From TrEMBL:
Keywords: Flavoprotein, FMN, NAD, NADP, Oxidoreductase. Residues 21-169 form the Nitroreductase domain. Belongs to the nitroreductase family. The keyword Flavoprotein applies. This is Putative NAD(P)H nitroreductase.
Amino acid sequence: MPDPDPAALAFLQRRRSRPARTLGLPVPDRTALRPLLDMALRCPDHGKLEPWRLVVLERAALARVAGLVADCGARLGKTEAEIAKQRAQFADAHLAVAVIFAPKPSDKVPGIEQGHSAACVAYGLLNAALAAGWGANWLSGWASHDAAFARDALGLADHERITGFIHIGTESATPPERPRPDTDALTTWMDA
Ligand SMILES: Cc1cc2nc3c(=O)[nH]c(=O)nc-3n(C[C@H](O)[C@H](O)[C@H](O)COP(=O)(O)O)c2cc1C
Protein backbone atom coordinates (compact mmCIF):
# COMPACT_ATOMS: atom_id res chain seq x y z
CA MET A 1 0.00 0.00 0.00
CA PRO A 2 1.19 3.55 -0.63
CA ASP A 3 2.44 5.57 2.30
CA PRO A 4 1.09 9.06 1.60
CA ASP A 5 2.71 12.28 2.78
CA PRO A 6 -0.35 14.45 3.57
CA ALA A 7 1.62 17.68 3.93
CA ALA A 8 3.30 17.21 0.55
CA LEU A 9 -0.02 16.36 -1.09
CA ALA A 10 -1.72 19.37 0.48
CA PHE A 11 1.07 21.61 -0.79
CA LEU A 12 0.80 20.27 -4.33
CA GLN A 13 -2.99 20.67 -4.29
CA ARG A 14 -2.88 24.37 -3.34
CA ARG A 15 0.47 25.58 -4.64
CA ARG A 16 0.44 28.72 -6.75
CA SER A 17 2.90 31.36 -7.85
CA ARG A 18 2.91 34.91 -6.56
CA PRO A 19 3.33 37.61 -9.23
CA ALA A 20 6.89 38.91 -9.19
CA ARG A 21 5.71 42.53 -9.10
CA THR A 22 4.08 41.86 -5.70
CA LEU A 23 7.27 40.43 -4.16
CA GLY A 24 9.26 42.61 -1.78
CA LEU A 25 11.59 42.44 1.18
CA PRO A 26 12.70 40.45 2.99
CA VAL A 27 14.14 37.90 0.61
CA PRO A 28 15.94 34.76 1.76
CA ASP A 29 19.56 35.37 2.66
CA ARG A 30 22.25 33.04 1.36
CA THR A 31 21.87 30.70 4.33
CA ALA A 32 18.13 30.39 3.77
CA LEU A 33 18.39 30.13 0.00
CA ARG A 34 21.09 27.48 -0.12
CA PRO A 35 18.89 24.51 0.97
CA LEU A 36 16.25 25.58 -1.55
CA LEU A 37 18.90 25.32 -4.27
CA ASP A 38 19.76 21.82 -3.04
CA MET A 39 16.09 20.87 -3.32
CA ALA A 40 15.85 22.29 -6.81
CA LEU A 41 18.84 20.32 -8.04
CA ARG A 42 17.40 17.11 -6.60
CA CYS A 43 15.52 16.56 -9.84
CA PRO A 44 15.01 13.96 -12.56
CA ASP A 45 18.12 13.89 -14.73
CA HIS A 46 18.44 11.19 -17.40
CA GLY A 47 22.01 9.91 -17.49
CA LYS A 48 23.04 12.06 -14.50
CA LEU A 49 24.35 14.66 -16.92
CA GLU A 50 23.52 17.65 -14.71
CA PRO A 51 22.67 19.75 -17.77
CA TRP A 52 21.96 22.87 -15.74
CA ARG A 53 23.48 25.40 -13.39
CA LEU A 54 22.24 28.31 -11.31
CA VAL A 55 23.09 32.01 -11.20
CA VAL A 56 21.84 33.79 -8.08
CA LEU A 57 21.14 37.43 -8.83
CA GLU A 58 21.29 39.61 -5.76
CA ARG A 59 20.28 43.26 -5.70
CA ALA A 60 23.37 44.83 -7.28
CA ALA A 61 23.47 42.19 -10.00
CA LEU A 62 19.79 42.74 -10.80
CA ALA A 63 20.45 46.47 -11.14
CA ARG A 64 23.33 45.75 -13.49
CA VAL A 65 21.22 43.36 -15.57
CA ALA A 66 18.40 45.93 -15.72
CA GLY A 67 20.90 48.35 -17.21
CA LEU A 68 21.52 46.02 -20.16
CA VAL A 69 17.87 45.81 -21.22
CA ALA A 70 17.60 49.08 -23.15
CA ASP A 71 20.41 48.27 -25.58
CA CYS A 72 19.12 44.75 -26.07
CA GLY A 73 15.60 46.03 -26.72
CA ALA A 74 16.81 48.61 -29.23
CA ARG A 75 18.74 45.93 -31.07
CA LEU A 76 15.63 43.72 -31.17
CA GLY A 77 13.29 46.55 -32.21
CA LYS A 78 11.25 46.50 -29.00
CA THR A 79 8.95 49.39 -28.10
CA GLU A 80 9.64 51.74 -25.20
CA ALA A 81 6.83 50.10 -23.25
CA GLU A 82 8.24 46.63 -23.86
CA ILE A 83 11.69 47.79 -22.76
CA ALA A 84 10.32 49.46 -19.63
CA LYS A 85 8.43 46.32 -18.64
CA GLN A 86 11.39 44.06 -19.23
CA ARG A 87 13.71 46.43 -17.38
CA ALA A 88 11.36 46.54 -14.40
CA GLN A 89 11.48 42.76 -14.09
CA PHE A 90 15.08 43.17 -12.95
CA ALA A 91 15.15 46.73 -11.59
CA ASP A 92 12.24 46.12 -9.20
CA ALA A 93 13.41 42.70 -8.03
CA HIS A 94 15.39 41.96 -4.90
CA LEU A 95 16.34 38.35 -5.63
CA ALA A 96 16.08 36.10 -8.65
CA VAL A 97 17.75 32.80 -9.45
CA ALA A 98 18.48 32.18 -13.11
CA VAL A 99 18.18 28.53 -14.04
CA ILE A 100 20.60 27.87 -16.88
CA PHE A 101 20.17 25.06 -19.37
CA ALA A 102 23.69 23.79 -19.98
CA PRO A 103 23.35 20.77 -22.29
CA LYS A 104 26.03 18.10 -22.16
CA PRO A 105 27.28 15.98 -25.06
CA SER A 106 25.50 12.63 -24.96
CA ASP A 107 24.79 9.79 -27.39
CA LYS A 108 21.99 8.57 -25.16
CA VAL A 109 20.10 11.61 -23.89
CA PRO A 110 18.74 14.00 -26.54
CA GLY A 111 18.99 17.72 -25.95
CA ILE A 112 15.24 18.04 -25.54
CA GLU A 113 15.31 15.67 -22.57
CA GLN A 114 18.12 17.66 -21.01
CA GLY A 115 15.95 20.76 -21.43
CA HIS A 116 13.11 18.98 -19.66
CA SER A 117 15.47 18.35 -16.76
CA ALA A 118 16.38 22.05 -16.59
CA ALA A 119 12.66 22.89 -16.45
CA CYS A 120 12.37 20.45 -13.54
CA VAL A 121 15.07 22.41 -11.72
CA ALA A 122 13.12 25.62 -12.24
CA TYR A 123 9.85 24.08 -11.09
CA GLY A 124 11.60 22.48 -8.14
CA LEU A 125 13.06 25.79 -7.04
CA LEU A 126 9.69 27.50 -7.48
CA ASN A 127 8.00 24.88 -5.32
CA ALA A 128 10.78 24.77 -2.74
CA ALA A 129 10.55 28.55 -2.30
CA LEU A 130 6.76 28.43 -2.06
CA ALA A 131 6.86 25.54 0.41
CA ALA A 132 9.35 27.50 2.53
CA GLY A 133 6.78 30.28 2.77
CA TRP A 134 8.25 32.71 0.28
CA GLY A 135 6.42 34.17 -2.68
CA ALA A 136 7.95 33.01 -5.94
CA ASN A 137 7.38 33.39 -9.66
CA TRP A 138 8.92 31.84 -12.77
CA LEU A 139 9.51 34.53 -15.39
CA SER A 140 11.35 34.52 -18.66
CA GLY A 141 10.89 37.73 -20.66
CA TRP A 142 11.99 38.41 -24.22
CA ALA A 143 15.51 39.43 -23.19
CA SER A 144 16.11 36.00 -21.68
CA HIS A 145 15.96 34.43 -25.15
CA ASP A 146 18.63 36.72 -26.59
CA ALA A 147 22.04 35.07 -26.63
CA ALA A 148 23.99 38.33 -26.37
CA PHE A 149 21.93 39.46 -23.39
CA ALA A 150 22.38 36.08 -21.72
CA ARG A 151 26.14 36.30 -22.25
CA ASP A 152 26.51 39.89 -21.07
CA ALA A 153 24.05 39.64 -18.18
CA LEU A 154 24.86 36.20 -16.79
CA GLY A 155 28.05 35.06 -18.49
CA LEU A 156 26.41 32.29 -20.47
CA ALA A 157 28.45 30.26 -22.93
CA ASP A 158 27.23 29.99 -26.51
CA HIS A 159 25.59 26.60 -25.96
CA GLU A 160 23.77 27.65 -22.80
CA ARG A 161 20.25 29.08 -22.52
CA ILE A 162 18.19 30.71 -19.80
CA THR A 163 15.40 28.35 -18.70
CA GLY A 164 13.92 31.01 -16.50
CA PHE A 165 14.31 33.42 -13.64
CA ILE A 166 12.79 32.32 -10.35
CA HIS A 167 11.95 35.50 -8.49
CA ILE A 168 11.72 35.00 -4.74
CA GLY A 169 10.58 37.37 -2.01
CA THR A 170 7.86 38.28 0.44
CA GLU A 171 4.42 38.66 -1.03
CA SER A 172 2.67 41.97 -0.41
CA ALA A 173 -0.74 40.81 -1.63
CA THR A 174 -2.32 37.40 -1.98
CA PRO A 175 -3.49 37.02 -5.56
CA PRO A 176 -6.85 35.44 -6.35
CA GLU A 177 -6.77 31.88 -7.59
CA ARG A 178 -6.53 31.65 -11.35
CA PRO A 179 -8.60 29.26 -13.45
CA ARG A 180 -7.04 25.81 -13.44
CA PRO A 181 -6.98 23.33 -16.30
CA ASP A 182 -9.82 20.85 -16.82
CA THR A 183 -8.04 17.61 -16.05
CA ASP A 184 -10.79 15.45 -17.57
CA ALA A 185 -10.64 17.38 -20.85
CA LEU A 186 -6.86 17.01 -20.99
CA THR A 187 -6.56 13.38 -19.96
CA THR A 188 -6.99 10.27 -22.07
CA TRP A 189 -7.26 7.01 -20.17
CA MET A 190 -6.06 4.04 -22.19
CA ASP A 191 -6.80 0.53 -20.98
CA ALA A 192 -6.08 -1.30 -24.19
C1 LIG B 1 8.91 28.92 -18.94
C2 LIG B 1 7.96 29.91 -18.32
C3 LIG B 1 8.18 31.26 -18.53
C4 LIG B 1 7.29 32.20 -18.00
N1 LIG B 1 7.53 33.53 -18.22
C5 LIG B 1 6.65 34.43 -17.79
C6 LIG B 1 6.87 35.80 -18.04
O1 LIG B 1 7.89 36.20 -18.59
N2 LIG B 1 5.94 36.68 -17.63
C7 LIG B 1 4.79 36.27 -16.97
O2 LIG B 1 3.96 37.11 -16.61
N3 LIG B 1 4.58 34.97 -16.69
C8 LIG B 1 5.47 34.04 -17.09
N4 LIG B 1 5.27 32.72 -16.82
C9 LIG B 1 4.05 32.30 -16.10
C10 LIG B 1 4.16 32.56 -14.61
O3 LIG B 1 5.17 31.76 -14.02
C11 LIG B 1 2.81 32.32 -13.97
O4 LIG B 1 2.79 33.10 -12.82
C12 LIG B 1 2.55 30.89 -13.65
O5 LIG B 1 2.09 30.25 -14.83
C13 LIG B 1 1.50 30.73 -12.55
O6 LIG B 1 1.32 29.33 -12.33
P1 LIG B 1 1.14 28.71 -10.86
O7 LIG B 1 0.26 29.61 -10.06
O8 LIG B 1 0.50 27.39 -11.11
O9 LIG B 1 2.48 28.55 -10.22
C14 LIG B 1 6.16 31.76 -17.27
C15 LIG B 1 5.97 30.39 -17.04
C16 LIG B 1 6.85 29.47 -17.56
C17 LIG B 1 6.62 27.99 -17.29
